[in-house]
């Protein structure tokens, strides 16, 4: 294989590896945040500087309130009168909040960082 074709294949392989890493990071982040635990993320910013971010239950709660403060407050107040319905509402809101956090997190940069370390 000429060098240019080999290089092109390596780029395709690297891109595929990054996509797989992104999916794995997103899934791990989803599971960990929904469990109420911390999720550390290491990545390089646009300047190439290594950065660290930790997402935790405070981020999830803040995102829940930002998404729909009225629903959050109503569900919290319902915990005494109708705890099952309150739990359903909070669970749905929490899932939306976690997806928002994942959407805003530097997942691609973290996957690229992991690929760079592995190489």
Topology:
Blueprint: H1 3-34, E1 39-44, E2 50-55, H2 57-78, H3 83-104, H4 107-118
Antiparallel strand pairs: 1-2
Helix pairs in contact: 1-3, 1-4, 2-3
Protein described:
The chain has four helices and two strands. The protein is mostly helical. It has a two-stranded antiparallel ribbon with strand order 1-2. A hairpin with a 5-residue loop joins strand 1 and strand 2 (50-55). Helix 2 runs antiparallel to helix 3. The longest helix is centred in the first third of the chain and has 32 residues, at 3-34. The protein is elongated and about 70 Å long. It starts with a helix and ends with a helix.
Largest sheet: 2 strands, antiparallel
Distance between the termini: 22 Å
For the biggest β-sheet, the strand order reads 1-2
Task: Estimate the strand proportion.
Answer: 5-15%
> Helicity level, as a percent range?
over 70%
Note the total helix count.
Answer: 4
Secondary-structure class: mainly alpha
What Rg is obtained from the alpha carbons, in whole angstroms?
A: 19 Å
State the total count of DSSP E strands: 2
**Secondary-structure element order, as H and E?**
HEEHHH
Low-pLDDT regions:
none
Average predicted confidence as pLDDT: 94
Backbone shape: elongated
């Amino acid at each position: 294989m000429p060098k240019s074709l080999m290089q092109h294949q390596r780029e395709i392989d690297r891109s595929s590896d990054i996509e797989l890493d992104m999916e794995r990071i997103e899934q791990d982040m989803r599971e960990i945040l929904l469990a109420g635990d911390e999720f550390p993320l290491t990545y390089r910013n646009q300047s190439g500087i290594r950065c660290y971010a930790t997402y935790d239950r405070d981020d999830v709660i803040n995102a829940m309130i930002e998404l729909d403060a009225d629903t959050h407050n109503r569900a919290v107040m319902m915990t005494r009168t109708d705890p099952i319905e309150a739990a359903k509402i909070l669970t749905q809101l929490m899932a939306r909040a976690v997806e928002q956090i994942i959407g805003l997190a530097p997942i691609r940069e973290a996957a690229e960082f992991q690929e760079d370390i592995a190489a």
